[in-house]
Amino acid sequence: MSGANGNGRHELRAEDLALAYGPVEVVHDVSLDVPEGEITAIIGANASGKSTLLRGLARLLKPRRGAVYLDGKLIHRMNTREVATRLGLLPQSPVAPDGITVGDLVGRGRYPHQGLLRARTAGDETAVAAALEATRTADLADRRVHDLSGGQRQRAWVAMALAQETDLLLLDEPTTFLDINHQVELLDLLADLNRAGKTIVVVLHDLNLACRYAHRIVAMKAGSVVAEGVPEELIDPGLVRAVFGLDCEVIEDPVSGAPLVVPRGRARPRDRVTAEGVISGERRGRFAT
Amino acid sequence: MALGRSNGALAAGLAALLTCLLFVCALSVAVGSRSIDLSGVIEALTGSGVDSTEQTVVRDVRVPRTLLGLLVGAALGLSGALLQGVTRNPLADPSIMGLSAGAAAFVVLGISFLGITELSGYVWLAFAGTVVAALLVYAVASFGREGATPVKLALAGAAVAAGLWSVTSGIVMTDVDALDQIRFWQLGSLAGRNMPVLEQVAPFLAVGLALALLCGRALNGLALGDHTARALGQRIQLTRLGILAAVTILCGAATAACGPIVFVGLVVPHAARTICGPDYRWILPYSLVLAPAILLAADVLGRVVVAPGELEVGVVLGVLGAPFFIALVRYRSLAEL
Amino acid sequence: MNTYAATLERAPAALRRLRVHRRRRAVLGTALLGAVAFALFVATLTVGTTYVPPLDVIASVFGLSGDPGVNFIVHELRMPTAAAALCVGIALGVGGTLFQQVLRNPLAAPELIGISAGASLTAIAGIVLFAWGGPAISLAALLGAFGGGGLIYALAWRGGVSGYRLILVGIGITEFLLALVAYLVARADIRDAREAMHWLVGSIGQSGTGELLALACALALLVPLALGLGRTLRALELGDDPARAVGVRVEGARLGLLAIAVALVAFATAVAGPIAFVALVAGPIAQRLLGAQGTALAAGLVGASIVLASDLVAAQALPVALPTGVLTGAIGAPYLLWVLATINREGRGG
Q1: Which residues of A touch C2 (CB under 8 A)?
Q2: Is some CB atom of chain C closer than 8 A to the CB atom of B186?
Q3: What string of DSSP letters covers B125-186?
């Protein structure tokens, strides 16, 4: 097993994976190789199956067909605890028990490393402290999770996943309900973690953030992967229309150099209607020609 | 589940259900330890023919019992529908939310300690008990972050009911006669309630039923959520108060007359909703007709199954209603409660 | 700047201090609860027709008293009741809090979701239909509790068991079973009915040494097991997905913990009947006193205190001796309401 620095090689892949909830099949025949040491973003419209795919990769769902392999072994045959030492997950909208503090919550991430009778070890303490430091929640350690802001709470949950000390980290829509500054903060944290050696798979609903932070993008529609690749090569108006049904222009992000998707709506939003007819929305202020 | 539900179709359905109800009423009058055929029933009702034991049975026992079953069934069905609408909780009914237990407890204490033996007297205690139980249940269920979710309301109702019952029966235990009485009374039964009971409870039930039937449109509004309802111009607090008053009267009077009866108020509105969709202006009349049909059918079953003895309707419904309830929990998506 | 790699080696001194401080609070709190329970235990042995001074009682309990009169009173007359109250309280407290934590609902209590109802049905059937005596009734109650638990689990199983479904099925089954119980009680003759209703309310003094011994053994076995599984329980509390992600076998852990809880409640019910409210309030009260670190042990001690206090009051302080169950309802319920009221006002979720 790799050391805490995350330089071990961990391979996660899906082969012809089909996932279903009851009778309804939500993901069809997906084959995916999660590239090591990179940030992979899964994008798609609502109900495209992206969260389901992530849950399948994280061993939360038994596949109807196909398989998921972790380090070459069938993930469903592996011991639960063993999987938890290699793969960490931040589920969607997690709910913390009443009254729990941040320190407590992060501590529970040590579960796979703790035997039935073993008390807390120095290793546990270090991992928890490191997780708190990395997510900048160390000064929140004795605050109740419920009293925190949305951004702080998400960071606390990420810290819990970090305390597991895994090399693979999967996150299911971690930026939903966060303010824009907290979204960027969280993704910057993920970038930090990735530079320290973690492989990250994240489901994102914001296409532009995905382009900016991810090394690879997996685009899903109606349960299948329609495209996969590097953002610069992958994201163009054709793909966006195919996946989201949205007309757009794609320009270069002046800050990161990644593709930036600019939506085209039906009408120019700031047209005004007057007695003489429609006056088109002018470019105003700093952008006036 | 949107079938093509035109008003015409629903009205026809209601008429069909009414026919069923009449049939069940006829059964209720005819069937029993002494089986009376249709001509005998008609003779008794019209007063023609010889005055015999049969006629006495029909006039003094079966008809009042059937009428009581009609009123009480309607009361329970409607109060269940109202509770489900006002709490937006598919699991609400007077027994699950502990209201019947509250009414029952107060009635028992009234009979044992205050010696109030007339229903017109202790029915007021039943009302008080219903209100106290409702307040307790809401207080207990609001514990914790998410407030009064349906599951917590059900649990709080069970807790309040259990608490009231243990205190009540513990206290009553010192008095053997009272003990003897309440163990029968707790079963929920139409037996032994004749004309006097019917006469005393009918006015209350009539008022409650009328009040309830007027609430259909208001319930539709409430179903959209408080903020939306208010934005649509509804007076929320007034509506809630009115509905709760109706529930108190209906549940209190029904329990005062017959003891606590379970499951009817829960299952009937669900059945009604399956047939007519989420419009309370139809759910209420459907519940009004379906619930007494089920109650009387259960009563008839109780008379038939252990003839010449009798199985109380509360027991029959308790045993038969549970599978329906469990099926509801398992198969309908009451999931995101 | 890469913050993560740089911080991995730092010693978490401040964090350790914080944890030590909170553990100290938990230990102190638990010790205090233990002292309260012990004091009530001694008080139960002290009062009665003959007043025995507390010091003599304590000496006798630890086998240090030479006075045969005192020893007789303490060991033969009063110890069975006191020990029963203590054990029943611990079992109900621990069982109740396990239920609440596994089902993630502070209101989930075994008496509400069918365990007690199952015990009641078999016990009452024993009393009314078969005219069984004490030990047979207790055994019937034990089997009924397990049966009820098993039935509910099976009916709630649908590819797995979720907390809310278990609770709701339990409530439905309870109404079903209690309807049958009410029927049996109504059909019995008046003496059997009286005995049945007495059993249904729950009372400490009604069982023999066999049942008590069984309960004590169950406690000795199951409570340490429950405490040992504390970490798994805390992981389960986070939700099914986070628990799985952290390595818990969720269905298996849930079944195991619930089985332990049902067993504890079953043995307690066999001894004392379905005593209301103890299993419901012990957990929340312990959590209120000790903060979120409240363990099962604290809940057990709270349960013991409630039962001992109720028994004391019921047997000694009232003009007419009432069964314990009436008092637990009367004591437990208002306390629960007070806890709720103050919690809501402070705006904490408890």
Answers
A1: 192, 195-196
A2: yes
A3: HHHHHHHHHHHHHHHHHT-STT-S-HHHHHHHHHHHHHHHHHHHHHHHTT-HHHHHHHHHHT
